[in-house]
Amino acid sequence: MTLDQERVLAAAETFARDVHGGDRTGHDWPHIERVARLAASLAEAEGADRFICALAALLHDVPDEKLNASREAGEERLRSWLDGQPVDQAVREHVLEIIGTMSFSGGHNPPMRTHEGRVVQDADRLDALGAIGIARTFVYAGSKGHAMHDPALPPRQAMSREEYRSGKQTAVNHFYEKLLLLKDRMNTAEGRRMAEERHRYMELFLDRFVREWDGV
Ligand code: ADP
Ligand code: NI
């Protein structure tokens, strides 16, 4: 990596820390930091461009609708920040494309176009899995006032974008509606290997959770 690239990454870190500072819905700065670390190691293992992967990972949740007045306002904030950075137009466009296409949104987005996009999307998905994924799920549910679990409320299947974000939800159902589906949607070999391990851990957790729920 060049010195200029190191500087852009440091500036991106400062910017993202500021944007994510007070978030308590699962998009706090530590999430960004973990995704950036995962993206760097996946990029290494997969032979993807480390600078693009690290930059896109640091910025990937800046336009999130939960942190901005709207998705569009968030995209504008990201674009204007990138415009002020000493990077090629091609890099800028690539990073914007990755961030614009990587979110899960109920599983409705088309596959990522580039290798770097596949790496960053895998990194973000990995942070929704395993022990960290379990913790984030319950923090998110708590922040929304959702119950941990409700055996009378079955997990929803095939959902529209709107249904994915609204409707009656529980933390446990989120595993069946999203998290347990992710391991089969991983893009890279290393990402899939890590996802499988984290998936098994979540299955053990859920198995135990329902047994304890039933008093076993
Ligand atoms: P993304 O936009 O990448 O899909 P989200 O903003 O939906 O991510 O989620 C942020 C974190 O909160 C993730 O760990 C996710 O699994 C969790 N989460 C999202 N929706 C729910 C939900 N309905 N119930 C519990 N956890 C959720
Ligand atoms: Ni994220």
Question: Can you give a write-up of this model?
Answer:
With 216 residues, the chain is mainly alpha-helical. 63% of the residues lie in helices and 0% in strands. It has a single domain, classed as Hypothetical protein af1432, CATH 1.10.3210. The protein contains 10 helices and no strands. The longest helix is centred in the last third of the chain and has 25 residues. The mean pLDDT is 93. Adenosine-5'-diphosphate binds next to helix 7 and helix 9.
Secondary structure layout plus pairing:
Blueprint: H1 3-20, H2 29-46, H3 50-59, H4 71-83, H5 89-101, H6 115-126, H7 130-144, H8 161-165, H9 171-177, H10 189-213
Helix pairs in contact: 1-3, 2-3, 2-6, 3-5, 3-6, 5-6, 6-10, 7-9, 7-10
Bound molecules: adenosine-5'-diphosphate and nickel (II) ion (NI).
Nickel (II) ion binds at residues 31, 35, 60-61, 124.
How many structural domains are formed by the residues? 1
In CATH terms, what is the fold-level topology?
Answer: Hypothetical protein af1432
CATH architecture: Orthogonal Bundle
Query: In total, how many beta strands?
Result: 0
CATH class: Mainly Alpha
Summarize the main sheet.
none
The proportion of residues forming helix, as a percent range, comes to: 55-70%
Instruction: Name the average pLDDT.
Output: 93
- Gross geometry: globular
Low-confidence stretches at least 5 residues in length (pLDDT < 50)? Answer: none
Treating each run of at least 4 consecutive H or I residues as one helix, how many helices? Answer: 10
> Gyration radius, to the nearest Å?
18 Å
> End-to-end span in angstroms?
54 Å
